[in-house]
Q: What sequence folds into this?
C-alpha cells in the first residue's frame, strides 16, 4: 500500500437545501390567526370532547373531520415537559443553552412545543406557568410566537 | 371545508447545513494529487488488477484492499455524455446551476478496464460532441483538494477517435 494516513484530510463543506413548506388549508388558518390576530387556535372534537393543537384535519382518536372545528385557546399555559438544548446549531431558534418545552395551553388537551425564554434554563420546571410573547414582525410561521415566558 | 376564500400559507426557506467529509487515505491521496501535482491517480486491485477511478479503498469485485496508485490521463476519450438543460439547484449553494452544461464520462489514457471519470465538458453544442472524442483535463489555478480542482474537460481540436489503451 503506497497510501498512508497522512494522506487523509477533512473537507469542510456546506449543503444548502431550498425547500417550501405548504401549510395546507387547516395549517394556513392556524398560521394566519397567529399572524393577523395574535390568536392561538385549537380544534375541538365534539365526539371525543378533546381539544387539539397543533392543527390537524382529522381527529387522531375517532377520525372525525376537524377542519372547521376551531376554538380559540388562551395564550398562556403550563410547562408539561421540557428539555435544555446545550449545543449550537445554525437552525436553532436561539443560542444555546435554551429551553424547548411542551406547553399545555389553557383550554387544550394536547401540548405545543415551543421556546421558553426570559428565564434561566436551570429554573424551568414542570408545572411552571408561561404566556406567549408574539413576534413584532409576523410572517405566518409558528415563530410568530417569538417565545413563551414565565407568566 | 369552508367556502370562504382563504389565504394559503407557503413558507420558503433555504436550509444551510454545515458538513464535514473525511476523505480517508485513498480518496485523500487522489484529491491531494489533484491539488499539489495536477495528477489524476487511479489505483488497482492487487488481485484482479482492475483499475479503480476514482480510487477505492477496497476492490468492489475481489474485496481485496487496494494496491498501487497509477497516474492516468490527463487526456482521454468521451465514453458517454449528457447535455443538461434543466437548471437544477446546486446542493452546495442552493442556487440554480447555469444551464445548459455538459457532463461526460471520460475513459482516461492509461486506464485498463472500464472505469471512467465523471466530470464537466466545456462544450454544450451537440453537433460538436460525440462518443470517442479526445478530451483533456483543465486544472484550476487555485486548487483546494476537491474534484473541482479539475475545472472541466476540453475537447482537443483535431483529436481523432481512438481507444485509450
A:
Amino acid at each position: 500500500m503506497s497510501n498512508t494516513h497522512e494522506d487523509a484530510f477533512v473537507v469542510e463543506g456546506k449543503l444548502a437545501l431550498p425547500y417550501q413548506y405548504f401549510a395546507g388549508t387547516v395549517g394556513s388558518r392556524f398560521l394566519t390567526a397567529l399572524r393577523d390576530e395574535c390568536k392561538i387556535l385549537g380544534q375541538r372534537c365534539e365526539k371525543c370532547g378533546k381539544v387539539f393543537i397543533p392543527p390537524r384535519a382529522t381527529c387522531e382518536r375517532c377520525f372525525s373531520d376537524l377542519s372547521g372545528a376551531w376554538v380559540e385557546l388562551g395564550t398562556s399555559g403550563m410547562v408539561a415537559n421540557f428539555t435544555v438544548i446545550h449545543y449550537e446549531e445554525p437552525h436553532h431558534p436561539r443560542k444555546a443553552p435554551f429551553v424547548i418545552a411542551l406547553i399545555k395551553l389553557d383550554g387544550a388537551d394536547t401540548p405545543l412545543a415551543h421556546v421558553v425564554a426570559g428565564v434561566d434554563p436551570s429554573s424551568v420546571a414542570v408545572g411552571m406557568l408561561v404566556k406567549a410573547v408574539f413576534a413584532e414582525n409576523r410572517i405566518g410561521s409558528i415563530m410568530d410566537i417569538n417565545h413563551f415566558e414565565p407568566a | 371545508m369552508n367556502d370562504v376564500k382563504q389565504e394559503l400559507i407557503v413558507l420558503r426557506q433555504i436550509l444551510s447545513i454545515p458538513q464535514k467529509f473525511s476523505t480517508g487515505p485513498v480518496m485523500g491521496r487522489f484529491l491531494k494529487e489533484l491539488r499539489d501535482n495536477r495528477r489524476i491517480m487511479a489505483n488497482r486491485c492487487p488481485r484482479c488488477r482492475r483499475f479503480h477511478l476514482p480510487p477505492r479503498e477496497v476492490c468492489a469485485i475481489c474485496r481485496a484492499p487496494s494496491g498501487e496508485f497509477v497516474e492516468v490521463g490527463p487526456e482521454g476519450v468521451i465514453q458517454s455524455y449528457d447535455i443538461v438543460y434543466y437548471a437544477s439547484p446546486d446542493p452546495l449553494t442552493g442556487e440554480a446551476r447555469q444551464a445548459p452544461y455538459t457532463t461526460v464520462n471520460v475513459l482516461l489514457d492509461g486506464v485498463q478496464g472500464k472505469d471512467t471519470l465523471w466530470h464537466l465538458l466545456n462544450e454544450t453544442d451537440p453537433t460538436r460532441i460525440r462518443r470517442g472524442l479526445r478530451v483533456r483535463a483543465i486544472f484550476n489555478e487555485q486548487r483546494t483538494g476537491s474534484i473541482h480542482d479539475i475545472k472541466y474537460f476540453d475537447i482537443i481540436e483535431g483529436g481523432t477517435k481512438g481507444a485509450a489503451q
Summary: The CA atoms of residues 35 and 140 of chain A lie 5 Å apart. The interface with chain B takes residues 1-25, 27-29, 31-32, 67-68, 90-91, 139-141 of chain A (CB under 8 Å). The two ends of chain A are 67 Å apart (CA to CA). Chain A has one domain: 20-150.
